[in-house]
Amino acid sequence: MEILFILGAPLILAILAFVMKNKKAAGIINAISYFAVLSCALLLLKRCVLSECRVSFFGFIYLDALSAFFIFTASVVTFAAALYSIGYVNKDVKEGVISGRRAGIYYSLFNLFCFSMFLVPALNNLGMLWVAIEMTTLISAFLVGFYNTKKSVEAAWKYIIICSVGIILALLGTILFSYAFAVSGVAKSLNWTDIAQVAHILDKNILKIAFIFILVGYGTKAGLAPMHTWLPDAHSQAVSPISALLSGVLLKMALYAILRFGFIIIKGVGFEYFGNLMLLLGVISLVISSGFVLVQKDLKRLLAYSSIEHVGIISIGFGLGAPLGFIGALLHIFNHAVTKSLMFFTAADAISVYKKHNINAIRGVMKALPFAGVMMLLGVFALTGFPPFSIFISEILIIIAAFLNGSYFVAGLLLICLGIVFGAFIYHFGKMLFGNLPKGIIPAGEQLSAKFAYLVLLFPILALGIVLVFKQKDLIWIAQKLFQG
Predict the structure, then answer these.
(1) Residue boundaries of the structural domains of the chain
(2) pLDDT value at residue 478
């Protein structure tokens, strides 16, 4: 079965990376293996979307179309990150930033982190889902503080403390869901499939309180405001390929957990309760992040606040409901994952050359890094929702859903905030990309592995932006498949 390979490969790679002496060879094996993982994830997604796929292993692992979608999204970004890591880590070793032994530790942690994120959407038991998400926090904290500088260690501790508080609240919510199931008189279980079947007979008041704990708890991990405060520090201090994984995959896994509990709420309480809460946190996240994007001076923190903005857009899409809101939010999960990863990679190349994060100190990227500069320019327009890039499609679907739903205030706010972010990104990146090179900056070539990583991510960004314009009916059909649970 595909899922066994997807879950098993990272564990084997983690051991292999630790014992191999040639770390560049370990990186290449890593990338090849994640291409195989991506292939398996694509086959799994195809099987689950085109047929009534329900994969279950003793009730512990449960896969449906939604699970397969999140696994596929994770596999695309992990493959690109594995590719980018080859040149990135090799350069750090050559420059003496890290030792060969530390490079092995990086690859081991990288693979364990990927395993924990693949595990989240594969689990049926909501208690084990909590354990898997906590595992992602503990493993990724070492990668946030990997360089062992004062700022990185501080960011890692802040990440652990804030997310641990959130995860405790999520645990309380999980316990309340279990209690509601237990007092209903049916069999006791924490399996999502069992609870969802009887959601309509569960105590509505307990479900409402439980979901608030879930939304705040897992919303902290997802980067929803006002629980987002760990995110800018962690994203800016983490190893750059890990920054892409944090933004592109980890935040989405927390959203997946919210969705699984959300389906129970929709069946037990009704969509309005779920939708209003998602809209509220989505709007707060959108407004707060838009303000911070305007005033940022740190390149990676700028991208981090952009992640909060896009998580807010996704939350709004789910809050607006089916079919356009759901499919728009779902598409946005994938579109943001690949686009933001591309931007973090280009930012990493720029920081590597200029040795600074400060936006005001970075000038003439197009001259210093011609290939990465072009990718960064394309990424700016893609991330801000400019056609023909894929984010334009998902954002326009969510905006249309808002108008059709009669949520004119939300639609107007979306348009205003998207306009603010677009202007801020053009201003910030326009200064960085163009102009004369600062003194002492020598034009450098990009690593070949980095170029491949860019192209892997750029392909779906362009392809989906063009193809999906002509596939509206298919999008609605897919949305129904993914959310029929």
Answers:
(1) 1-124, 144-482
(2) 63
